[in-house]
Every structure is written in C-alpha cells, then in structure tokens.
Please model this.
Amino acid sequence: MTDNVSDINNINNNNTQNNNNNNNNNIIVEDFDGVSKEVITASIDAINHNSLRNSMPTLYKSVDVNAQWIANKLKERENEFIEKKNMIIFLGTWNVNGKKPQESLDAWLKDPQVVSLGQPDIYAIGFQELDLTAEALLLKDVSRSLPWEQHISNTLQGDYVKLLTKQLVGILLCVYVKKEHRQHITQVQSDIAAVGIMGMMGNKGGVAIRFSFYNTSICIINSHLNAHLENTQRRNQDMRDISKTIKFTAEDGRLLSIYDHDQLFWIGDLNYRIQLPDHEVKERIKKKEYHILLEHDQLLNQMKVNAAFEGFREPPISFAPTYKYDAGTEDYDSSEKKRTPAWCDRVLWKTAKTAENVALMGYRRHELLSSDHRPVSCSFLIKIKTVIPDKRHKVYQETIKELDKKENDSMPDAAISTNSIDFEQIRFMVPVVKNIVIENIGQVIARFQFIPKLDESSLCKSWLKISPIAGMMIPKEKINIELTLYVDSLSSQAFNVLGESMDDILILHLENGKDYFISVSGTFQRTCFGNTLESLVRYPHPVRNNIPIPPEQKKLSIPKELWRIIDYIYNNGMKEEGLFIESGVGKEMELIKDCLDTGENFSSIGPLSIHSMAEILIRFLENLCEPVIPFQMYQQALDASSSSISCKTLVSHLPAVNYNVFFYLISFLSEVLTYQQSNKLTPDQLAIIFSTVLLRPNPSSPQQYQTDAATIKKKADLILHFLISKDLM
Amino acid sequence: MSFPYEYIFKYIIIGDMGVGKSCLLHQFTENKFVPDSPHTIGVEFGTRIVDVNNKKIKLQIWDTAGQERFRAVTRSYYRGAAGALLVYDVTRRITYNHLTTWLTDARNLTNPNTVIMLIGNKKDLEGQRDVTYEEASAFAKQNGLIFVESSAKTGENVEEAFLRTAKLIFQSVQEGNVDLIPGGVSPQTNPTTNDPTTTTTKDNNCSC
Ligand SMILES: Nc1nc2c(ncn2[C@@H]2O[C@H](COP(=O)(O)OP(=O)(O)OP(=O)(O)O)[C@@H](O)[C@H]2O)c(=O)[nH]1
Ligand SMILES: [Mg+2]
Model:
C-alpha cells in the first residue's frame, strides 16, 4: 500500500456496507467496526475502509484499541452514571416428602417477618422429593411440579412473573421476579446435575438457574444430597460433582461455571446431620441449646475444614432442626427408625471477590406441617447497579470528546515568534536579515516545511531567501529561520520601475498539522541603481520621492544622475592617476548613491575620493537592469566587434536613450584620454573596463559564463573602435 | 490495525475575520469557548469522530484565516473539501454582505457536490443583531444552501451545523454522487497528508 492518491485505481466501488447498527447504549463496549484496510479518496474525500476486509488474514484477530480504551474509561467513570439499588432476594427450600400441595404457603413465602422488611424482588424457591414415584424416577415425569408451581403463583399473586423453573425428578427450582424487573433480566439459563443411583438417575442431584439481574449476575442451585448420618463424605462429593457439572454459556460463547457469578446461592436438602446421640439432640432442642448442637453439625464442621462448600457462608442458625417430623404434627420422628433431628435444609451463599457482598435479612424456618421437613428461607439484600442511560450517554460523549482532544493534541503544534515581519527601509543591494523562531510546543515531533502558494512554484518572491526551508524539531526544541531580503538588479525592476509594493506571504506547513502564514514586507527605497535608462529619463527630479512624468511629456535625453556623476569627475578628477582602476570607499559610495537619489549636493558629503565617484559610474552602468547595449543585441555586438563599420551600424540601431548614453560616455572617455599623461590611462584599459558593463549577456542566458579571453577582447574591441576613431559617432 | 471510523470528510470553515470560525471549531472539537480568540494567521486543523446513520465518520476540519490579505493564500485550501461552512456574524452586516464573494470562491474552488452550509454565528448577541434570520434564510434558499444560526459561545446549534453537513455528505456518498478523482489534490495542501490512515495503511503489507 502506498498512499491514498495512488490507490484510486484499486477502488472497488461496490464496497460492502458495514452492517454495524448496534448502537445500544446499554452495551458498555461501543461497537467500532472498522477492521478494514483499503482506502478510497473520493473527490470529497470520503474514505471507506470496508473493502479491504477480505484481504485480512483470517487467523489474525484484530483488537479495536479505541473501543477498548473507551470501555475502560467508561468503567473508570461508572459512578457517574450508575445508580445503586437495594434488591431483596428470597431463597426458600422445602423437602415436601412427595406430598401434593395441601396447605397455604403464606406462612413461608408471605411470612410477615419476611415481607415486613419489604416485598422480595426475586423469589427463588426450591423443592426436594416433589415426586417419590417410580415413574418420576424412571420416566422423568415432571407432572408433579405443575400443582406446586400453580400453588406458588397463587401465593405470590399478580405482582410476580415466573422467570424460569427447572426440575430434575424430585428437585424443582422456581424463580419468580417482580414484574417491573423482568425487562432488566437477561441471559436466563438453567442446567441440571444428577448424582443419584449410578450417578445418573436423578433422585439426588441439583438444578441451577442463572440470570443477569440489571448488571449483577446471579446463580442459584437447589440440590438434594445423599442421606444418612454416615454419608458425610458422599454429600461432600455430591456437592463437588454438582458444582463441576453445572455449566452455562456466556454471551461470547465462553463456558461459565457456577463460580463465574457475582452472587451464588446454594439451597436445598443438603442432608447433613448432627453428630450426637438422638436423646441428647432432642434434649438440647427442648432447651434451645442450638449452639451446642451446631458445634456438632456436620455441614458446619465440613465447611470449617474446607471439605465442602469452600468459600460459601451460611447465616447463623437460630431455629430448631427442620427434620424429621411426623407429618402433620409438631413432633419429631416417632417411627421405628427414630431419625435423629437435623438441620438438613439450608441456605448458603458466596459473593464473588469483585462484587459487593449481600446483606443478611433473616434466616428462619416456617411452620408448614404437611411434610416431614419444615421449609426454610433466607432473604438477602443485594446491591444492584443500574445504568442511567442519559447519564451514561453523556459520559460516553465526553469520553469520545476526550479521545478527539487527545488526538488533536497529538497533532504537531508549533509557536512562531511572529506572523509578520517588516524589513522596513530596504536599499538596493544591501541585504537585510531577520529571524523567526519556531518552537515545537506540541507533544510529538514536528516536521515543518515552507510550501508554495496555489499555482506557484517557488516558496517566495525572488528577493527573499529562507533558510532552512524545512526541518524537524523534537518537542520543546526551537529552530531559527533566517529570512534574507536582498534586492539586486534582477529583482529591483519590480520596485524601481514597475512600482510594485514589497510584500509576500510565506506558508509554513507542519506535517500532519496546521499551516502558518507569515507576512513579509519592506519599503524599497527607489534608486537610480538597478533601474532602467528608459525609466530614469522620466525623472526630471530625484527618483527617491518623486514619480515619473507621464509618457506624453518630454523626457530627459540622458539620466540626470549619469550627468551628475560624469560632471563631477570631469570637474574634479580627469588627471587623477588610477582613475577607474583604484577602488572607491564603500561608505562614500553609499552616500553618493543617496545624493543621486535625493538630489542632495555631493558637497554635503564632505571631502570625497574621486575614486569613489569613478566606481559609482561603473556600478551605475553595471546595475542597469538592461545594459546600455541591450541584452538582445549582445551577440550581434560580439559579432560586429571586428569591424568598425559594423560597430557603427550596431550603435546606430540602439534605442534613442541608449544611443544618447553611449555617445555621452564615449565622448567623456575620449576626454579622459586627453589627460592620458597625468592619469596614465590607455584606450585599451578604458575599453576593457567599460565594455564589461556596457555590454553584458542576459544573466539567464548561458552566455553569461563566457569569460574567455576571446570574448573579453571582442567586447573591448567594440568600445575601442569608438575611442580611437572619433568620427565613428 | 483497525480504525475507529469508516469515512473521513474534509471540511473547510470560511468567512470574514472575527465571525467566529475558530470558536466554532473549538466548540465543536473541545466543547470550549475561547473569549479572546486570536486571529487565525494560517490554517488550523481539528478532528472529531461523529456518528452518522450508525457509521463512524471522522471529520477533518480546516479553519482558515478570514483576513482579506490572506484571501488569495487561503484559496489553496478549498480543494478536496466535502463540506464548506460559510460563516457570517449576525451582529455585523458587513460580514453578511461579503457572503457572495465567499460563496463564489467556494463554488469555484470546490466540487459541485460539496455541501455548503451557511452559518449565522453569535446568535447569543440578540440585542446587537444586524441581520435577521428571515433575510439570511431567504439568501440561503436562493443559493441552495442549508442554513442555521449558531452560537459558538453557548454552543447552540454548533453540533447541529457540523452534523447536518455530515449527514448530507453521507447521503451524497450513498447516492453515488461522489465521483472518484485520482490524485486531485496538490501535495502541499493534500488533505490526506493529515490522514492517519495514510500512515496506518503502510503498516499493512497489503499488495495494492
Ligand atoms: N458573543 C459571541 N462571541 C463570539 C461568538 N463566536 C466568536 N465570538 C467572539 O468573536 C471573536 C472572533 O472569533 P474567532 O473565532 O477568532 O473569529 P474567526 O472567524 O476565527 O476570525 P479570523 O481567525 O480572524 O478569521 C472572538 O473574540 C470570540 O470570542 C459567539 O457565538 N458569540
Ligand atoms: Mg480564526
């Protein structure tokens, strides 16, 4: 894959639309479905990533890191959109000894001691020995459960709905919930585990129901474990077998054990006995010395040594053993067998480490007489977390915003010292340097680059230089950018002649980030240097602060500046030795230029080296945007140089102003030569010096590099013709 | 790798200086109002992921300088925009009067399918109102623009402006009105240089 632009050819326009319509606010992990690779750049830059899906290797499971991040953030802020509510769960267990319903269940399910603390939100009711018939055992006939379910429904009346019932032969578990909660219950599942005769017949075993109640997962097991005093180890084993056998399936397909729940309840006829002689047990029951009996309770003792029900807890027992009665009476077993009373019927619970523990509301037995067991119940308070959709949405939106902000922050950011640079007064051929400092104030590496404006190929105007034009900064690093403004004879025409204003806008581009505009401006001091002859003859007054006269007015025959220079030399330096050969003084020359441009007298400068003025003459000619012999005649001039006649013809074709200037200069130089004895100048010397400035190739042409002796001689010859033969002009 | 979005739309925000373009961007991307927002000198940039028809769309928003002197330079940034938010200030008629020139630029420099939304900002300054809703609404209708009045200060209608534009663009994508133009964007202003997918797709050794 290269980049977006070159991928266009690969685009399959029939992209499969992503069927991601799952935007349910109650699901914590937002579904970002974007596991796809191909990129389309449409004319409006719609980029659809879906069509690459097929090219993903199937073994590779992608992780949506953004969705994960968002889910974690929401979890962190859960308190802001979650409301805790207390819910009451009632757990009841009764071994009915094969009896059909014959008495009211009110004393159990509607026990005033229970309901006075609040109507339970959930009823989980377990029965054992619902059906002792051979049919139930062998044919798995479950018809006996219906009257009991009916009986429960009648007792609970219209406030409750049945969530689920599950039966394994004589073991039945029924879960009822208040109507208002039904819609907040999901993932309702059940399972059974038979541990009876041959491990599969189901006269002993357990049934389990699990569900998610709001966001709390609950699992309830109702079991009937093996009987008889001496079978403690069997019961322990039954419990372990049931807990291993029962399995549910999570939404994502994982198997869930009973321990994978926030709240786990285990009820039933667990059949553990009191390890004491019958008469002592009965004696102590009479005296309500339960605590002594409980010291000998098999279950509590097994739990103490972690031999069964590891991690489970039981509320303290403060009621008499619930087994075994003569049915219909309040008397413990009077039959031959004389079963010793025991707490067979129990309620245990286990709260996951990650969940909030339950609060105990009361563990008691109830006086229903029809069976040889008494029913038992225990109610608990469970704290349920409920999501407030509006608040959650708000937090979700804020989280997304935070992510966007992070993303925006992770874009490079830079501070630049100024957006606007004024170079103020700019003089011809005097470079001025200004600096901009860029600082990386973002959190990532910033790469910057100056870029051209729309439809332009250069970064800036020709009179400006940027250095460096690109670079990289680590966070907090600063880079100095040097802007050099320099007007030479190539760029000066725009200001001197065309009167353009001096400004430009630079675009500093941060890779993957914003662009900065930098305005650059300056005020060019108009000057006769870097000007054109054509323009200068339109200035009867100094160029600096005047405007040229309109075309219809009479123009000067030669630039007055040229006249002033030559006039000065004529009056002050014709006899000077080394004239045009010695260098001028830099400072003086700058002042002379100013005088030329402002009209000021040269005398204002004070004493002045004649060599400065002589050099000014040469510089003036050299810096003319177009030389006295125009660029387009350069080659002709070289060709003509061997013949004085050709040279004469060539000069006669010069534009009028150029001709005037040429004539004027030759006359002056001839005059200079008349002082040859003093100034020691020869015609050859003057010809060489002046030919290089009067006759120049176009700087953009390859000829400018012709600096060979032959070319130099040709140029000089042209001038020489005029210096030695006066009648050529 | 996976992307948390399926489309990227480029937006540009244009309009006279001081109308609140940068404030609208900040309000939309960060829920913040910056009372002394400096003039934008250049082009700023913000992103946000939004939901349109249950699709995650990444909006890539380019906030341009409104000052007249940068007009020629900011024209470089119109190219490739799927949406253009054309903003004026309801308390300054002059910014409304300039809409036609902005609109001309927007039409000339963007694709015919580019969704242009007219936004009358600073609606919270009811007392200083200089342009009525009705007048601007008529202007919008005449020029086939969608229109909303917003306040970058209170946040009113800011979401709405960005989202309505996104919906219309999305609709246009679905109707197939968006033609694919290969390499239609100059490198320096290429909106996709800011596109994270450019880098992430490189990691994928896919053969295309
Ligand atoms: N009362 C009010 N003030 C606003 C609102 N939007 C922006 N402003 C103010 O208007 C001024 C200019 O806002 P900006 O967002 O910087 O304007 P801009 O369009 O980006 O201007 P340029 O960057 O120069 O093109 C700031 O001082 C803001 O505080 C608004 O909705 N209500
Ligand atoms: Mg701005």
